[in-house]
């Protein structure tokens, strides 16, 4: 799973990089604390994004929901400039795991989905992720549409998340 922070460039321009880094660095340990219960781990922080790994897709979907719940609690009562919003990309497949980093097609697709396609508060799944989910979980998904990556059309699905 790859997360991306919404409006990072705009907020950094308006309030400075230190403001964002203070908010983000305080929030990351909260995310880490919620991962163990969902059999997940933080692989690395990359700029305003998190690369996360889970033992299974159900755990990854639960991880997204848990992070969104953390964000709702974090944002409650704070001014807009101090709120964090994430978008998510979820992939599933073989990866080259180097311990402190992972590589593979599904990692790349999850990164693209989280950074470039998903809107704040939205989690998009690759076709491989959808196929690997149990039937009970796939019934919850919503068709998102097709997106082109390198000349190849890829059908995506959205994982519904609680309303803010």
Characterization of this structure:
The protein has 164 residues and is of the alpha+beta class. The protein has one domain (2-159): 2-Layer Sandwich (Alpha-Beta Plaits). Helices cover 42% and strands 27% of the residues. It is built from six helices and nine strands, in the order E-H-H-E-E-H-E-E-E-H-E-H-H-E-E. It has helices at residues 8-15, 17-35, 57-75, 105-117, 127-132, 135-138, and strands spanning 2-5, 40-46, 49-54, 86-90, 96-97, 102-103, 123-125, 142-149, 152-159. The strands form two sheets. Strands 2-3-1-4-7-9-8 form a seven-stranded mixed sheet. It has a two-stranded antiparallel ribbon with strand order 5-6. A hairpin with a 2-residue loop joins strand 8 and strand 9. The relative contact order is 0.16.
């Amino acid at each position: 799973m790859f997360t991306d922070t919404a409006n990072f460039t705009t907020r950094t321009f308006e309030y400075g990089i230190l403001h964002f880094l203070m908010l983000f660095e305080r929030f990351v340990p909260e995310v880490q604390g919620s991962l163990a219960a969902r059999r997940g781990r933080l692989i690395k922080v990359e700029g305003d994004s998190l690369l996360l790994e889970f033992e299974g897709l159900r755990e990854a979907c639960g991880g997204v929901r848990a992070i969104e719940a953390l964000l709702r609690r974090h944002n409650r009562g704070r001014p807009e400039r101090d709120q964090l919003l994430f978008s998510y990309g979820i992939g599933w497949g073989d990866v080259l795991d180097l311990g402190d980093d992972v590589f593979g097609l599904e990692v790349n697709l999850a990164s693209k989905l989280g950074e470039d396609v998903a809107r704040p508060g939205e989690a998009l799944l690759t076709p491989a992720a959808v196929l690997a989910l149990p039937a009970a979980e796939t019934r919850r998904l919503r068709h998102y549409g097709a997106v082109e990556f390198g000349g190849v059309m890829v059908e995506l699905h959205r994982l519904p998340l609680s309303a803010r």
